[in-house]
Amino acid sequence: MSILSIQNLSKTYQSGSRKLTVLENVNFEIQAGETISIVGPSGSGKTTLLGLCAGLDSGSTGSVVLNGQALEKLNEDQRAAVRNKDVGFIFQNFQLLPTLTALENVMVPLELKKRKDAKEKALELLEKVGLKDRATHYPTQLSGGEQQRVSIARAFANEPKILFADEPTGNLDTETGEMIEKLIFDLNTEKGTTLVLVTHDLELAAKTRRIIHIKGGKIQEDAHA
Amino acid sequence: MPDFNWILKMAMRDFRKNLSRLLLFVSSIVVGIAALVAISSFGENLVKDIDNQAKELLGADLVLENNKPLGDQALDSVAIQLASEVNFASMVAFPKTDASRLTQVRALEGDFPFYGKLETIPSEGDADFRSGGKKALVEKTLMAQFDAQVGDSIKVGSVMFRIVGELQKVPGQTGITATVAPAVYIPMAYLEETGLVQYGSRVEYNRYLQFASGTNVEELIKPFEDQWEMDRVDADTVEDRKRSTGRSFGNLSNFLSLVAFIALLLGCVGVASAVNVFVKEKLASVAVLRCLGVASLDVLLIYLVEIVVMGLFGALIGSILGTLLQFILPAVFADFLPVEVTVGISWVSVGFGMITGLFVSVLFALLPLLKVRNVSPMATLRPETADSTLLKDPARWAVMVGILLFIFGFSYFLLKQVTWALGFTGFVLVAFGALWGVGKLIMWAVRKFLPISLSYPWRQALANLYRPNNQTISLIATIGLGTAMISTLFFLQNQLLEEAKFADKEDQPNMLMFDIQTPQLADVKSKVVDRKMRIIQEVPIVTMQLNEINGIDKKENEELPDEENYSRWLYNREFRVTYRDTLIKSETLTSGELIPLGARGDSIFVSLEKGFGEGNKMKLGDELIFNVQGRPIKTYIGSFRDVKFNQVSTNFLVLFPEGVLEQAPKFHVIITKTQNDRQAADVQSEIVREFPNISIINLGTIVETLEDILGKISFVIQFMAFFSIATGILVLISSLIISKYQRMRESILLRTLGASSGIVRVINTLEYFFLGSLASLSGILLSFMATFLLGEFVFEMNFSLVWKEGLIIYLAITGLTIVLGWLNGRRIINQPPMEILRGNG
Ligand SMILES: Nc1ncnc2c1ncn2[C@@H]1O[C@H](COP(=O)(O)OP(=O)(O)O)[C@@H](O)[C@H]1O
Ligand SMILES: [Mg+2]
């Protein structure tokens, strides 16, 4: 079953009088449960593509169908509802809410889904990422690796159908990075979530079943392992 | 869709970490709300007190007043108590010091006031005064001025009285009345003997009546009102007094509320700019929330809830402070109040303050807060795109319109007139616009014209003013407006006094003698000339009344509809008129010409003061019939004159040509110039000794009185301006604290790059110096403009720059900014730098 389908997707930015085409006629399809990485040099359009796939932004032309819904037909608030229901995110710079504790950060997606057991569920997830004893700490009281672990717990909290990660280890040292990678893949395997990973690290990319190479906004290669 | 509970929960979570900073945001409105609540409570209590003390205000149930002796009145027999008073302005002399001064003499007969009492020191002075004999009660200001003691003598006309009491308080009178026209009470029995009531004296006759309690005075006097009207008798009841006093103090307190409202608006600018910084820091969180699936409106609501809670809190603190503050208001306004004011909590005012505070903080916070809705979730992946302000966001425009409507609505509520409210709204727009413009202009000029060769700390400090997120412009607006208010006041006051003192120099007249009877004229003139003083003007004055305007007499005028009739006052007042065929220096013709008698047949053409004529619907050629001591004189309006009222000179609403009034009973005014104070005092006491009916005003006394009154008024205005300054300071403090971390990061960065801590300190000080300078200069510039406009169009005086005062204000405000900056800087240094590095801002 296709969970994400991209057809003829292009994105152009207007900067002054100049038109900048960042993505050009991109096509691919992802099946439920697949793990896939998007790789390419810096500035090739990876982040832009990820944003479009997750419905954070809308393309200039083309269509993005996520879990059966054509995102370009929805308005921002409707896309927000889709994100809450079906999508999880892990960011390069963690993006925890600084005024919320670790636990509360993880609870947010659950509370948005009006889960009565938000707290128990969030604690359970924190335990899985090994941070149960840091539940009441604020992001500034945590190290980078710890923050990313909280963000992983938050990403899995709403039991998303698809998880997007943009350079999740980009801001971490190698050792911590490897630990984070393992955590992501383990949880992914456990929950059977579809995983879309953006990275310029080919070693990390090799751990996914499929790799899309992108350069200058165009798909160069779409390789299944 | 998350439910409201969740939004509340999120707001409270966010709150925990932001509490102290959010408190700063609303602190700017606290002073404004406090001022508003204090004034409003004071006003409420004042109106209540006027109601309760209305009888004491009037001292009687009914007061009849005329410029002729009243004779027997039909109601005299109904009254249970009667009293009479004759009052007029006259010189009184203190033989002990041989000093004299123009005062209000009140000859009293009967037990007035029936309600309240004349408060004297010693307290038995009042009873002593009424026990008979040549005794007087003298206003305390007068006693102080002449260093007089109870027991001293005072000479009123040709009679010597013994002072038996110093008047502390007279029902219905305020400190200001006592300053302008201090009263001397004498028994009616000796009025005749003083010899002061003669032709030309402006005398007022009062009859005070008290009726049995429970009498409906309004009903009782109805049958007599028409007759009184015809006889030009003015009747004043407790209800009338209640209405007029209540109205004027209602107006006063509304006016003061508007001043407080300006302080509040300044605070609102502070709220908006602080929330703006807050929002900018929240943009990243907003993007994350959007990513996690929160609808844009819900995100807005989370932060709005925080603002509402803080607004309520600020309003509450403000209301409490305001309620406390009103306890000192009676002291501030003491000189203006005719009644004893009670203080107490006014729940209406507290509610009013709470609602206003909540409303303005939300309204002004929304302006920057709305931006939250436009944050794209994409900003989580690309943070630099978070701050994309949609200038054309219709909601922002709606909020701005809402703010204008609020200002208009609020001022309408206080002023009760659409045009005034529009005027006030316009004024606020112009004032804020002007400050914003002046601030921008100065900032632009500094950037443009400051030499690049400046040393590094100067350039860095200047650059800091333009850094993103800082509140330079809003600080200029708030501190600037406070400065502008204070300095405008200061400058104007200075200018008025300078103008008055200036008149004493040069060849300007400085002494005015009036009420000179014709037989006394030659004598007085020779006394003046003997002292080698020049007689600058000698003016004959004839008193008359207006009988008909264009054929309409008083009675016919009463029957005309309001749009067509003339002011009743025209028929009732006494005109003091002079005659000459030339204009004097203070006059200019605006239309028509000065037509001497005989130039156009035998018609008499008079000249009217322009404002008086225009204000009373009169045109060139209109027919006026005057009544000169019973003889009607038909005249036509031949010209209008503009009269400058700002020098010592006699000014007339109506000017006759020569050849008409020469034979009428008249009295004279002489205007002269004394060389020095000594000479002024000598000539004054000599003339008063010989001709007690002649009144003398000299410029020295006028300047003194003016200074006294301006002092009292400016104290009140300074008190009000204080609110604006205090708000400006709060906004300054809060913006310094808000930018603390930014400054700290910069300092650490500068130090890392090798700047010594000395240099960093110099840079910071310079930055505060620039900020204070910009703000105070903008304010001072604005107040120069305001003083110029007021001087030009309201007071008709020449504008002169008051550099010295401007400099003092500039130094004070700039110094204050630097000191506050330093204090804040000390707090920065006490923070562990690690907190900053971890981004715990
Ligand atoms: N808002 C924007 N306006 C103009 N150009 C943009 C904007 N956002 C991204 N770009 C450009 O799009 C290109 C792709 O960016 P990005 O997707 O972030 O690349 P990557 O993630 O692969 O490094 C870059 O050249 C970037 O400069
Ligand atoms: Mg990228």
From TrEMBL, chain A:
Residues 4-225 form the ABC transporter domain. The keyword Ubl conjugation does not apply. Pfam families: ABC_tran. Gene3D superfamilies: P-loop containing nucleotide triphosphate hydrolases. InterPro entries: AAA+_ATPase (IPR003593), ABC_transporter-like_ATP-bd (IPR003439), ABC_transporter-like_CS (IPR017871), MacB-like_ATP-bd (IPR017911), P-loop_NTPase (IPR027417). GO terms for molecular function: ATP binding; ATP hydrolysis activity; transmembrane transporter activity. The keyword Lipid biosynthesis does not apply. Coiled coil: none annotated. It comes from the Bacteria. One of its GO terms (cellular component) is membrane protein complex. Transmembrane segments: none annotated. Keywords: ATP-binding, Nucleotide-binding, Translocase, Transport. CDD domains: ABC_MJ0796_LolCDE_FtsE. PANTHER family: ABC TRANSPORTER ATP-BINDING PROTEIN MG467-RELATED (PTHR42798:SF2), LIPOPROTEIN-RELEASING SYSTEM ATP-BINDING PROTEIN LOLD (PTHR42798). Belongs to the ABC transporter superfamily. Macrolide exporter (TC 3.A.1.122) family. This is Putative ABC transport system ATP-binding protein.
From TrEMBL, chain B:
GO terms for cellular component: plasma membrane. It is a multi-pass membrane protein. Residues 23-222 form the MacB-like periplasmic core domain. It is found in: Cell membrane. It comes from the Bacteria. Keywords: Cell membrane, Membrane, Transmembrane, Transmembrane helix. The chain crosses the membrane at residues 21-43, 255-279, 300-333, 345-370, 397-415, 421-446, 715-738, 768-795, 807-825. Residues 258-377, 719-833 form the ABC3 transporter permease C-terminal domain. The keyword Iron-sulfur does not apply. The keyword Manganese does not apply. PANTHER family: INNER MEMBRANE PROTEIN, MEMBRANE COMPONENT OF PREDICTED ABC SUPERFAMILY METABOLITE UPTAKE TRANSPORTER. This is Putative ABC transport system permease protein.
